[in-house]
Amino acid sequence: MPPILHYTHPHAERQMPCAAFALHGDPLAAGRVIHFHDPLQGYAAGSSISVGANLLIEDFPWVELGVVEAGELRLQGDGFDLQLSAGDCFVVPRGVHVRWHHRGPLRRLFMAFPGLEACSDMPKVPIRLDLSQPLSEASPPAASVLLTPTPKAWSETLFSVASLRIGLWQCEPYARRQVEPAYTELMFILEGAVTLTADQGERHVIRSGEVVVVPRGATNAWASEETVRKVFCILG
Fold first, then answer.
1. Alpha-carbon span 78 to 15, nearest angstrom
2. Burial level of 129, CB count in 10 A (0-12/13-18/19+)?
3. Residue 145: what are its φ and ψ, rounded to 5°?
4. Inter-residue contact 198 to 222 (CB < 8 Å)
5. CA distance 195 to 64
6. 110 in Cβ contact with 212 (< 8 Å)
């Protein structure tokens, strides 16, 4: 069974696996560490620490989601100029012409999707997710898996291409039994906290400001005692 990747705080105390994999033709290879790679779904997840960069990337090679943990990053190009800092979440589409610039140290988490092919509906510019975006009412977790009354949920998709969806989701407290996910999801918890219990009994308490990656097939149970708001990144 694939591991659940919990990026705890403080970052210096994390003990993460290291995958024997490198992204081919990676313009951001310096400081990048890949913690998990799924060759079937075609993605890699990990962290990066770099001390400075001023790169002109003519053709960004894949879709990449980033969560800035520390430092400042500027993305510039035709029609965009994004200033990113700690707590920001952003997406760089495949094929974008972008200047990637930061003067000091930058620490970030990422999911890269080299398995997603170029397509006509690929967005043309990077985006910074608006984490305070109003949400629309959404379907709650399925009643068949719930161990508590049905909660209310809200959601908004902010980036979508092929089998990848990235956006915001909020839900009242609930608990559900263990399920085996048919998709991979990165969750960046913005408000509240959630406990994920893996099939082998390992518990992960993911608090506000932390990130967790749940690969496809990583059976887990969910329990939250307060409303949770999160960034979701779902592949599959």
1. 40
2. buried
3. -110, -5
4. no
5. 27
6. no
Q: Report whether 191 contacts 228 (CB < 8 A).
A: yes
The 10 Å Cβ neighbour count of residue 190 is 18
- The Cα 151–Cα 139 span in angstroms is 9
Alpha carbons 214 and 32: distance in angstroms, whole number: 20
Dist. CA 231–CA 8, nearest whole Å: 16
> Tens of pLDDT along the chain (236 residues)?
899 999 999 999 999 999 999 999 999 999 999 999 999 999 999 999 999 999 999 999 999 999 999 999 999 999 999 999 999 999 999 999 999 999 999 999 999 999 999 899 999 999 999 999 999 999 999 999 999 999 999 999 999 999 999 999 999 999 999 999 999 999 999 999 999 999 988 999 999 999 999 999 999 999 999 999 999 999 99
